[in-house]
Structure formats: structure tokens, C-alpha cells
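Q: Got a minute? One more chain.
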Amino acid sequence: MSTEINPGPVFRPAGEADALWSMGSLHERLLTASESAGALGLSIVSQPQGTATPLHVHHREAEAFYLLEGSMTYRAGDEMFELGSGDFLYLPVDIPHAFRITGSSPARFLALAAQG
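A: Always. Here it is, folded:
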């Protein structure tokens, strides 16, 4: 986490975010934790159909997802959610969660991680 108090504005022209491939998924990093003094990170994530995460928990950051394209099934605690384009989900810290990209096409979503 950065100790910088006010890092200043961050501007990303369209198509110029740093891109990282991880486990078959593309993460276009719009804002990193170091650029926001540890407050949050924001990425556009593209994942192929069938991609799934294991059940896991974040103890230090909350997460939020806004689905731009595609569909996913999302488990948050004991609840299941079916997300489609335009749906939003917020997860506070310490909520076990997992998701799977469903449907016949890839999914694309905004993923936000904020210090909890």
C-alpha cells in the first residue's frame, strides 16, 4: 500500500490501460492501488465462457463488479446471483465468494477493489 497522501489525478486515454493476462483472462488496469494511495484499484476484465474462480475470501478489500457484457453466476456467502449485462454486485470484506462465466460468449466487466 502506498504512503503517498494525494497522488493527484489519473487519466487513461481509451485503449491505453496497462494490460495483464492472468489465467486466460485479460485485465486492463485503469487505476492501480499505488496510483490511489492504496484506496482502490479498477480494471476492465475480459474472461472466456466457463472461467470460474474457487470460493475465496478477501479480508482487506471490498469488491464491486459491473457487468458490461455476457453473463455470470455469482456466489456471495449463502446467496447466488445471476448477473447479466448492466447488473452490479458489491461484496463487503470477509464474504466468501466465487463466480463462473456462463452463457455462450465471454464476459467483460468492471472490477473494483477498495480498501475495506
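A: The chain has no helices and nine strands.
Q: Perfect, thanks.
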